[in-house]
Amino acid sequence: MPSADPLPAPQNLGDPARLRRRLPPGRSPEHAEPARFLPHVQGLRAIAVLLVVLYHFWPGRLPGGYVGVDVFFVISGFLITGHLMRELTATGTVRLAQFWARRARRLLPASLLVLLFCALVAMSPYLTPTSALPNEVQEIVASTFYVENWFLALTSADYLGHGGEPTTVQHYWSLSLEEQFYVMWPLLMLLAAWIAVKWFRGSTRRAVLVVLGVVSAASFVFCVVFTLTDPAPAYFVTFGRMWQFGVGAMIALVPLLRVQHPVVSFVLGWGGILTLVFVAFRFDGQTPFPGYAAALPTLGAAAVIAASNTERWWYPTRILSLRPAQFVGDISYSLYLWHWPLIVIAPSVPFWGLTIYHRVALLVLCFVLAWLTKRFVEDPTRSWRALTSRPARVTLWSSLAAMLLVGGTAGAAWAVNAPAYRDGVQALEQLREDPPDCFGAAAVLSEECAETEWNDTVLPAPGFAGVDRPADEQCFVQLNNADVVSCEFGSEAADAPTVALVGDSHAYQLLPTFQRIAQDEGWRLVTYFKGACPWNATPLSTPGAFGQACTDWRAGVAEELAASDVDAVLTAAIATTPYSADGFDSSFEAAVAGYREAWSTMTDRGVPVITVVDNPVWETDPNKCLRIRDAAECDAPRSEVLVAEDPVRAAAEGADGVTLLDFTDVYCAGETCSPVVGGANVYRDQDHLTVTFADTLAPWLTMAVRDALARPE
After folding, report:
1. CA distances for 273 relative to 75, 280, 293, 296, 583, angstroms
2. pLDDT of 211 strictly over 90
3. Would you tell me the crossing angle of helices 242-253 and 295-306 to the nearest 10 degrees?
4. Residue 148's pLDDT band (boundaries 50, 70, 90)?
5. Could you give the CA distance from residue 261 to residue 251 in angstroms, rounded to a whole number?
6. Rounded Cα distance, 295 and 73, in Å
7. Strand partners, 676
8. SGNH domain spans which residues (predicted)?
9. Which end of the chain is more exposed for a tag (fewer CB within 10 A), N or C?
């Protein structure tokens, strides 16, 4: 997160007593000296914010651009530690109220302005889908009070709750973490000052080095271990990131680390920049992060800061001091704040497309808004005399009042739209109970519906499709959890046929449909689900604890299925699952072999297996398009949303005892695929079916299972 702090270099403060006498009211000693600007650090800010922004605009082109946030953490650690150390050296203490008041004046005005904008957007059903409103309001409030990182950490295991589009304020996790750093860091340094008096003979700098060094080392170990064991919350937890601030702090505290030697400075600076470029292009979503991998961008940023020699024009310190880099560095904080909400909102704006030209125009708009915010919000409020000429508590109470105003606006957004939300829930329940004739898949698969024509009505409404999801989340195992959780539905009769539903979230999306089928047919339904973990014997290529949890879960499911009296198994899986290719010519062949091996554990016993070819996977939630355009305008080419070779189809072809269900022609006609079929809204997010549409597949799913159960062993 780009902070808005100035960039002074450490200097000799002179006599502390004389300095204190010269301080104007409300000013702390860290600002009593003339600040020597460090242009190359401002240029490093430009690199960091561009990495993040370009990654969010074109994630496929810059898959590791998220490391820009790590660069900001190092910069903040360097700057804030330098500020605090100078005050400790001059006065022996830190005036906490003054310190926090300055942070509030510098960071809150722009931050709360963007949050207020997002809260107003949340009021509009045209820009925010009604189904997304609860999450949007909760996260705006969490971001307003700077606990968004903890909100995401506590809900990051909710794979089901984050299957759709993120909120407009999700990027505030890093701001929240940094604000928590501003609270904890001066307290740690005050603790170090007390330790200096007790055990270090008054050597404050040495005590600070020891305390911050110990905290940073412990944080790094925690980060590595937690990333391996529970990577989703590890990304957001505060203590797992403190070591990155600590690396910047070491450069501020140890003068020898600010390198003046021409050759060493040149190598450090360019080496750091090249490291950041390398990780931006080579890291991606599969990189175990932060963990040990975060050390590369962290040390790269530290190397750039440490490179202090400016003698030659080709030195990185001089290149980063060029005016374009300085301009981007100046507006980096506001640019970070504005870019993400605009990216999330843009697809919901009428007449706004997703072409390269629209993206570039949106990027330009982000820069314009960032400059305007810097010029008319950030800069004026930092020196607003109504606050700077009064005690620090005036700033702090004013900040709290502004935060309550933003939080109240978010609450008002919920109050305004709550009736529509409740009506949507009721309408969805009625639709499931009494769907129209020739609705959904029947419009394609039923001969009786061949002449049926649908009007422009889409059910469920695009603004509410996101909540049309399975309700039995206790049956769904997520992330690093390897527990084998089994749920039972349907008939309790001793002689009832038992059908097992096994797989990842694309099998789980069929659960409500099969609950009804089992009830109607008198079957006993047993389920085994784990997110992003299909029923397959080939390990995932995903490293760390997640991949291992999937392997362990599969082994547990295999044991339970082997010990159970199952009459048929139905399975489904997302076609884009990454499999390890070890021992095979390709990951595709490995996936095909893995499916056949897993299925054979049942078919060799005479238990039939029914499997389903995967549905299309869209680049973004098609409901965004459906809310502002006709359904025909939201179609996509088959080549963009369908995997060319689904390993499920290849594995099922020619396999004894396996029935393949292929509904591709339901989703797609000719060369295009549609998000609306027979008036039914097919998707609740970019790749999961609505329960409403899955229910329209029930007659054909039922027929396949009936035939499998009737087949002689």
Report:
1. 14, 11, 16, 11, 38
2. yes
3. 20
4. very high
5. 16
6. 12
7. 681
8. 485-699
9. C
Residue 231 has pLDDT above 80, yes or no: yes
Distance of CA 63 to the CA centre of its chain: 13
For residue 453, what is the DSSP state? -
How do beta strands 636-637 and 672-673 pair?
Answer: antiparallel
Confidence tier at 349 by pLDDT (50, 70, 90): confident
Helices 392-433 + 96-123 axis angle, to 10: 30
| DSSP per position, 47-107 | HHHHHHHHHHH-TTTSTTGGGHHHHHHHHHHHHHHHHHHHHHHHHSS--HHHHHHHHHHHH
- Separation of alpha carbons 699 and 681, rounded Å: 18
Q: What confidence category does residue 5 fall into, taking pLDDT thresholds of 50, 70 and 90?
A: very low
Confirm if 251 and 78 have CB atoms less than 8 A apart.
yes
Burial class (CB in 10 A: 0-12, 13-18, 19+), 230: buried
Q: What mean pLDDT do residues 481-501 have?
A: 94
Q: What is the pLDDT of residue 628?
A: 85
Q: How many Å apart are CA 688 and CA 685, to the nearest integer? A: 6
Taking residue 473's Cβ as centre, other Cβ atoms within 10 Å add up to 14
Full set of structural domains in the chain with CATH:
39-415 (no CATH), 441-710 (3.40.50.1110)
Compute the Cα dihedral for 364, 369, 374, 378 and give only its sign: negative
Residue 29 scores a pLDDT above 50: no
Structure tokens that stand for 200 in this block = 């270090």
Residue with tokens 């506001």: 334
Bridge partners, residue 611, by sequence: 571, 660
| Residue that wins the pLDDT comparison between 27 and 678 | 678
Q: What is the pLDDT of residue 713?
A: 63
Return d(Cα 270, Cα 304) in angstroms, integer.
Answer: 7
What are the structure tokens assigned to 333, written together? 């904080």
**Percent residues over pLDDT 70 in the chain:** 93
**Which pLDDT value is given to residue 2?**
60
- Paired with 673 in beta bridges are 636, 668
Q: Is the pLDDT of residue 455 over 80?
A: no
Q: How far apart are CA 587 and CA 592, in angstroms?
A: 9
Place of tokens 């904080």: 333
Structure letter (DSSP) for residue 237: -
Q: Which residue in this structure is represented by tokens 């600010």?
A: 258
How high is the pLDDT of residue 157? Answer: 53
Sorted by sequence, the CB contacts under 8 Å of residue 389 that are 6+ apart come out as 25, 26
**Percent of the chain at pLDDT exceeding 90:** 72
Cis peptide preceding 647, ω within 30 of 0: no
Q: Hey, which residues does 681 pair with through a beta bridge?
A: 676
